[in-house]
Amino acid sequence: MDGLGPNDRHAAPRPAALQLTGICKSFGGKRAVAGLDLRIEPGEFYALLGPNGAGKTTTLRMAASLLKPDTGSISIFGVDALRDSIAAKRITAWLPDEPMLYDQLTPMEYLEFIAGLWSVPARIAEKRAAELIDVLELGPHRNVRCEGFSRGMKQKVALAGALVHEPRLIMLDEPLTGLDAAIARQVKDLLTARVRAGATIILTTHILEVAERLADRIGIVCGGRLVAEGTMDKLRDQFGAHNSTLEDVFLSLTSSAKEAA
Amino acid sequence: MTFAPGSFAWLLAHDLRLSTRQLVQFMARWSLLKTLAMLVAGFVGMHAFAWGILEMRSTMPGLFTPQAMVTAIVGALLWMIAQGLLGATRSLYERGSLELLLSSPLAQWKTVFSRALSIAVTSAVALSPILLPLANVAAFQDGTTWLAMYPVLASMALVGTAIGLVVAIGLFSAVGARRARQISQFAAAIIAGGFALVIQLGFLLPKATAAQTSAWFASKQLALSATVSQSYVGLDGILRGEVPSLVLVLMAALAIFSVAVAAFSGSFARASQVAAGNSDDGAAGKMQPFKFGPANALRRKEWRLLTRDPNLFAQLGLQIVYTLPLAVILVRSPKEIMPALVVTPLVVVLAAQIAASLAWITVSGEDAPDMIATAPITPNQTGLAKLTAIAAPLGIILLLPMLALMTIAPKAMIYAITFSAAAACSTAVINFWNPMPGNRRSMLRRHSQSKLIAIAEHSLAMLWAVAVVMALVDLRFALVPLAVIGIVMWLLKPKQAAARNDVKKSSVRPRHLIANASNC
Question: ipTM score of the complex?
Fold first, then answer.
């Protein structure tokens, strides 16, 4: 466990996979995240929901060390991500909503590149890359440059890149947007398998059905604050109607939060 | 002015709007008054420049022989063909506009004709600020004959575009979508640069051969002149600016253009569809075994992208072609220090400029900056790996002149290697320190993004060139330019590293991603 010695494990509580405390971030006077607190346990599948402009992507970009928060702290498996971002990055993966690939590289070359950046030994990396290519059914395109790929195929290559170094915390921003049903199923299956294997996942999505089916816990963000959090049942309780859907809960909570603001 | 939707004029206006979009966007930042002032200043400035050039006729008559004029026109035509080839190739691979038009109920020939005509207009307009002021000033001084340049320019643009279109389609059919793009861009660069090389042939050929060649060309030119002056085409008439001859030439060019478009519009449309849907043509060959480590990963990635970027590959290939005359001049020179004194600073300037371009591509043209930013490596590791990645293509480009220098002045070669490396590092590093948003395709326009960096790059290149010359004379003299270089670098070094990390990391992202980031 990074950042903790063997003796500390008995004394200290189990560190969260991701812990954000009092995170604030503004862009030119406009507050995107306003004192957000979030704790995600190891092995958890967490979905972060919220309307457009709620601060979901900004929150994940801060957790991925792409942005520095104005205030607050970020801890990843006990590693202070603001003080030792390299150690935090070593065990995390970030997948943006827009797949960031090199059009002139093939999927295998891309995976080699990512594995190299994370210092995965070449032989292990090659084996993992081949496995991911097979699982995501990219085999026929493994040595074809990505420039002609559809969005779904690009997203699969980017996902393989996020997984090739076997991160302990995987952060995904809208990973299923624009994918057809078959590819979306492949991606969901792969993510579920990763959580079963012990990885922790936090994803943002606008597809509420995905959050409802996959996530252990759901967090709803509005106006840069966490307005509700819990399992699906707990959220229904909070809403006060046991037969309500996540859509009902989401719309009710976000409109209440907007009114309160 | 509005045209009926679907009409040819409407379509041409659409294509011209697309091809001039960047210029219009650039000028849209100015007020109307400033735009008018800049246009007037440009008009007056170019005419003043043309006046100055034409004034040289009395002092340097050797520059204004009929042969020189013919050479200039041939050079302009070559440039037009290169532009036509580039424009046609670019259109073939555009997924957006052309695909939309070809899927509409508009006639196919109309779409292709309009696109080709917009390429011709763009080529003509690009060359007109140089040629037309010369024609205007010459017409003012010597008579209206020189206004023949206008229809000649239009004719050259039409013929150049027709040839470019046919060559692009031919390449596409012969070698396939991907290779056609690479070959056509390389060919366009070579054709455009060919003019410069042809001029330099005089320096490269042995003196006796050069004299024989010159005499042969002179005799052929006289024979040609005699033939055409008797023919109905009336080249003499064109040179005299006779309207019937000019109309005839313009009509002939339009006919060539129309026949080429009519004959190849179907092939062009089919090729465009193949190019847009082409995904299986990108086989990159057998995958090599994986390598370990961030530095290897970054270098391999950069090298792969550099060799697979047809536009950049063509430009780098051209740089190698341009170094040939330098090498030949050196090899043919007597074993003296003087040629080395001339060539060594040129090599240093070349190294500085190429390194700056490559550094810009590897940093600002980075397609996945977030991926790099989330990797467990420091910015210094990334910078060092990219710097070493740049060194390889730079070494290849400068190999020929370095080897030539070795044969005549080994000491100069050692200085050239040392100062080229230092110059390359300095211009590359300022690009690392000051990344600018952009993509790989806009490499040639990168200097419009930051005038400060453009000036700094050129200043550093010149300072290193001065330093190497002084070092060749006496090493102590080089200390002065070296000190100035140190000051320039110190001034350009960002003072707030932390602030830079936050701001610049996002600024090097492609524009569409910057827009997305704020849309949290």
Answer: 0.78
